Amino acid sequence: MTKTDTAIPQAPGPDAAEAREIRESDSGLVLQQVVQPGIGAAIWRRRLSPAFAEWIEGIPVGQLPALRALVDFRAAENCIHAACDRSGLPAGTMRDLLASDIGALALVFAQVVRNPLMHIRFEAVTTDACRKFHVDQMPARLVCTYRGPGTQFGLEDASGQVVPAGEMRVGEAAILRGALWPGMEVTRLLHRSPPIAGTGQVRLFLALDPAVDPAAAQRLH
Description:
Jelly Rolls; seven-stranded mixed beta sheet; three-stranded antiparallel beta sheet; DUF1826
């Protein structure tokens, strides 16, 4: 994988198939299945180890790392360590586990979207940002919440109302199709961030988005 080769989707016709199903498993291999017909999201139903969960819940809010950058997937792990250094989070086994896990997820995502370059967003969330159900305007996104409540899913019914379709738990990882997923299927599975404003909850949230060539992005809109 040496170049960006994310395909540019064609405009689907009125009878286009829909991607609205959730594929889930306790095996990380499930993330690769997001490319299968009709799948709107693939969720790795995993659990954080008790020791790691206790460590990450105990980090003071002011020491939670924050990172927004365009990186090659091979640099993701080191970038997380750099963000931890900036936030004053001490080095140690648990921090190593966090950085290596994000590096591993970046590798899987790069393989799925066939693009080594990605935008990484890793930050604490305390507001109701992205609280409306939606489909991302991009080919795909990987999400994982390391602390706090996870992403919620929904589907529109015949009347246009959004019906809950499941949610992610802390530590679980998923790849979601976006509106610009290549091919003729239309992504109908919606998602949102859980509303937490005023609850005192803090989410430590990871999102990976594929980098899209600016000229290609203009042709997509």
